[in-house]
Amino acid sequence: MGNGLDFDFVIVGAGTAGCVLANRLTANGKFNVLLIEAGGKDDYFWINIPVGYLYTIANPRTDWCFETEPEPGLNGRSIGYARGLGLGGCSSINAMIYMRGQASDFDGWAQLGNRGWGWSDVLPVFKRSEDYQHGADAFHGAGGELRVEERRVSWPILDAWRDAAAACDVPKIEEFNRGDNFGNAYFQMNQKRGMRWSATKAFLRPALGRPNLTVMTDAFVERITFDDTSDRPRRAAGLELRTKTGNIQVNAHREVLLAAGSIGSPQILMLSGVGPADHLGEHGIQPIHELSGIGRNLQDHLQVRSIYRVSNTVTLNRRARSLFGKAKMALEYAMFRTGPLTMPPSQLGAFAKSAPDKASADIEWHVQPLSLDKFGDPLHDFDAITPSVCNLRPSSRGTVRLTSPEPGARPAIAPNYLATEEDQRIAVEGIRFTRRIMAAEPLEPFSPEEWKPGPHLTSDQELANAAGDLGTTIFHPVGTCKMGSDTEAVVDDRLSVHGIDGLRVIDASIMPTITSGNTNAPTVMIAEKGAEFILEDHA
Q: Whole-prediction pTM value?
């Protein structure tokens, strides 16, 4: 293989998918595996404490701190686009919400021709890695690595919001994750006794003692290297890395596995000469293999963050702005691992249809007992709640593109939010549906007053403009290396890159269509299936 370090498998990215792969591929002791992470270790204090997302998002220690291109659908705004940096990746900074999506999501993948990806195929995979607080049943697993628990703090305003949603025909249900999420319930979370349960804790740390696993942090991938063959498909041979001590070559005797996420994986492929030939040529990169779909098909959930001032109750806004409130929260967490410091960004969720003709729920609320202008900003100085609503199945599609042939250059991220009339209509309906819930009788004791977007905005056009002003990401980018067999597909249904041997993409970028909800749990499932394929192919 030439000079450099030799391994059987080289995994790029120690985020959710990479941690799962590192665990599964080293378990039988047959293969030597290298796991590469551009960031550092996950030893930052605020990673473990659930509310620490307030300090890890937009922090260059733990976040790539990307920004989107100016978005026409967001009235020309660029927005922050957090992506996890360091061991655990996004699972070290995310909302911790355990949400699989709906059965129709995965059945839709299978109907596109992706064998083995229907709901009946993936449900056992979800269950296998799960350690559900209430034990195993028809929909949940116990004894797996990924802990799933209930919330550890309550807010009267959220209980009332559940009643108000039920009064608007969004019924209370016990939980999500059973295939049809219609209804409202408190989210279940990847926590263990009040601590964040990241992919590092769940999957990587149990494998660190294995002699056949090497973990390399602060190692930046510059490009994939390839064997130059003319009589068979080109083969991925390894990687060129930049480290603190200099550049090194690593060789993959069996496969290179990209698990760098929906931004990182397409960027690495394009920097390596794999992607749309015309785009690569614009940056002086010699195309090695034409795959026009790389970096296309970007999908994300845009949340429209309505804010309502409330009375006769206490929200996190007031508790967090008081020294006494902060001290009380810290003491409760230190003594009992309960209270507001265990909070994810959103505790309460609801799923509904934006129109009666929808086959399944297509909008989701993330309801927060707090308000702020954007993550990273201080909480407001008045009591408020934020019932954010998003379109679960946007029809708009965006791109990830290179801005330079230099590996360290930031990519151009253009989600293309609200680019279709359908997405604009659903955003408007989401705001109107939120207003109906906030006006329902169970919330009357709290005298909710709409602060954003503002009750004076009533027409479709005014509300569409408001969605552009208020909309922001829920950090669910997928689809930029999509699975399938059409001309835009990047990987096949065993996650191998079309036309290249020894190279797979195994992360959220392979989703042909976005799942209905938060994307971390589906990414675990994707990595589990990817590991299965690899072990079968190299038995």
A: 0.97
